[in-house]
Design brief:
This protein is an alpha/beta fold and 204 residues long. It has a single domain, classed as Vaccinia Virus protein VP39 (Rossmann fold). Helix 6 links the parallel strand 4 and strand 5. The chain is globular. The model has no long low-confidence stretch (mean pLDDT 86). GO terms for molecular function: methyltransferase activity. This is Class I SAM-dependent methyltransferase.
């Protein structure tokens, strides 16, 4: 399957516009409801693996302020520089989530407004990555589109790529990688139209 050329420009776009993105996102937390829900299910002092952490604003900030530790992973060096400057006591890793192999497991994994920038085949390949890094009982939360296909947004005048699988395929992928589905909502009107998946790794 061919993809829109913007699918391969996401990292460079975020590198070039990191400061602008951070400034816009700091006070734009329409998705707070789901991050609060995620935090409410975490054990005290949990360590969260934040895949595609961006600048750490406002999601990582909220989790850190709520007592969690965050290990953030992003492909954008400029975004990670903002993270390190703002949250120097947390761990920030320059890596591609698609090939991540930290040889560690976490109490929770978040791929919030990042996973949906991956091409459909890359999204499928992420589920073994989620599984490898999830401790028994770990939470997993990510955003997708509402149905299979590609969607093109615009940021700072440039095309910003998004893609999604069908809901039935996400449900099957979660189950086949030992995650139970806790909650799913398509295009949540209370959350800026986000389509959200929340699962939990089954205990061994």
């Amino acid at each position: 399957m061919s993809h829109h050329p913007s699918a391969d420009q996401i990292i460079s776009l975020y590198d070039r516009h990191a400061a602008t993105w951070n400034d816009l996102r700091v006070n734009h937390f329409i998705d707070r409801k789901w991050i609060e829900r995620f935090r409410s299910l975490l054990p005290p002092s949990a360590t969260v693996l934040d895949l595609g952490c961006g600048s750490g604003q406002p999601v990582a900030r909220y989790l850190i302020d709520a007592g969690a530790s965050v290990i953030g992973v992003d492909s954008s060096e400029q975004m990670l520089a903002l993270c390190s400057a703002q949250f120097p006591t947390q761990e920030w890793i320059h890596a591609d989530m698609r090939t991540l192999a930290l040889d560690r497991q976490f109490a929770a994994i978040l791929a919030w407004n990042s996973f949906f920038h991956l091409k459909p085949d890359d999204q499928r390949k992420m589920f073994p990555v989620f599984q490898r890094h999830a401790a028994p009982g770990a939470l997993l939360m990510f955003t997708s589109g509402p149905s299979h296909g590609e969607a093109l947004g615009v940021f700072e005048g440039e095309t910003l790529y998004h893609a999604s699988l069908d809901p039935q395929e996400y449900t099957a992928l979660l189950a086949s990688h030992d995650f139970e589905l806790l909650e799913h909502i398509a295009e949540d009107a209370e959350c800026g139209g986000q389509t959200v998946w929340l699962g939990r790794r089954l205990s061994d």
